[in-house]
């Protein structure tokens, strides 16, 4: 028992010593979804490779962390648990809308990405922060909730669903931010889609997140004006940084 406990304490001390809360912030601007997915996957796999090397060779190389913000041209993405029939367009319909469609390896159902929407891809080694995916999702939601509060928009959570909602306690419930993540060995990818100046008409071509009886909204719709999206990004990334206790730096 004493030997086991000593080993555990040594492991905890080693983990704390090698935790890296430095996070590189990158804004990719408007980028094609497939290209962004490929870039994410490359970073994701590089972090996994470091962790595997550390484990197999008993090394202590710290793992990097990234917070990526981007926007995409019109695209629909379907998560692993999603239903293809929740896309209401055929190939001709997609062409007419100048939109693309991808089945991807995150959790969740179908969602839309497009210009004016802040898409966040935290690619983090959660061993550097905390190893709790439920808490990870709730923390991302909280960052969005605090950002909306900065603009006088009261938001919260809808019991049983991920994401950030307005008026979740009544029949006017509407979603303003969707979440869908993938994690392997506590390394995360994919993330959230936050509607700032989003063209909401594109949500009419899907059953958003598989929920057919709730509305979708944006900051522009709620406030009746377009937002300075760079200002919203700054507020959002600051809240993420504070909640995760990150040491955020620009790429």
Notes on the protein architecture:
Helix 3 (91-96) links the parallel strand 3 (75-78) and strand 4 (100-103). With 251 residues, the protein is α/β, with parallel strands linked by helices. It has helices at residues 2-17, 33-57, 91-96, 133-150, 219-223, 229-244, and strands spanning 22-30, 66-71, 75-78, 100-103, 110-113, 117-123, 164-166, 174-184, 187-195, 215-216, 247-250.
Secondary structure elements and pairings:
Blueprint: H1 2-17, E1 22-30, H2 33-57, E2 66-71, E3 75-78, H3 91-96, E4 100-103, E5 110-113, E6 117-123, H4 133-150, E7 164-166, E8 174-184, E9 187-195, E10 215-216, H5 219-223, H6 229-244, E11 247-250
Short description, anyone?
This protein has 251 residues and is of the alpha/beta class.
Please give the share of residues in helix: 25-40%
**Large-scale geometry:** globular
Report the order of strands and helices.
HEHEEHEEEHEEEEHHE
What structural category do the secondary elements indicate?
A: alpha/beta
- Secondary structure: number of strands: 11
Q: Gyration radius, to the nearest Å? A: 19 Å
Low-pLDDT windows of residues: 1-14
Sheet with the most strands, sense and barrel status: 8 strands, mixed
User: Approximately how much beta-strand content do the residues carry?
Assistant: 25-35%
Question: What oligomeric state do these chains adopt?
Answer: single chain
Query: How many alpha or pi helices?
Result: 6
What is the CA–CA distance across the termini?
47 Å
Mean pLDDT: 91
């Amino acid at each position: 028992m004493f030997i086991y406990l000593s080993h555990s304490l040594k492991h905890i001390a080693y983990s704390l010593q090698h935790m890296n809360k430095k996070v590189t912030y990158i804004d990719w601007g408007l980028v094609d979804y497939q290209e962004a997915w490929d870039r994410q996957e490359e970073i994701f796999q590089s972090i996994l490779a470091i962790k595997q090397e550390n484990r197999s060779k008993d090394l202590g190389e710290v793992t990097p962390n990234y917070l990526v913000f981007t926007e995409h041209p019109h695209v629909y993405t379907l998560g692993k648990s999603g239903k293809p029939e929740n896309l209401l367009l055929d190939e001709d319909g997609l062409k007419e809308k100048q939109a693309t469609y991808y089945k991807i390896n995150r959790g969740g159902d179908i969602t839309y990405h497009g210009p004016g929407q802040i898409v966040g891809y935290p690619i983090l080694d959660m061993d550097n922060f905390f190893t709790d995916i439920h808490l990870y999702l709730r923390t991302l939601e909280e960052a969005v909730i605090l950002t909306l509060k900065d603009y006088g928009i009261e938001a919260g959570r809808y019991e049983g669903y991920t994401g950030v909602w307005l008026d979740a306690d009544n029949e006017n419930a509407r979603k303003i931010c969707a979440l869908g993540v993938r994690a392997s060995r506590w390394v995360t990818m994919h993330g959230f889609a936050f509607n700032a100046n989003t063209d909401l008409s594109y949500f009419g071509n899907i059953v958003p997140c598989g929920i057919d009886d709730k509305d979708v909204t944006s900051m522009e719709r709620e406030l009746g004006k377009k937002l300075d999206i760079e200002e919203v990004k700054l507020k959002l990334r600051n809240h993420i940084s504070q909640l995760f206790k990150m040491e955020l730096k620009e790429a």
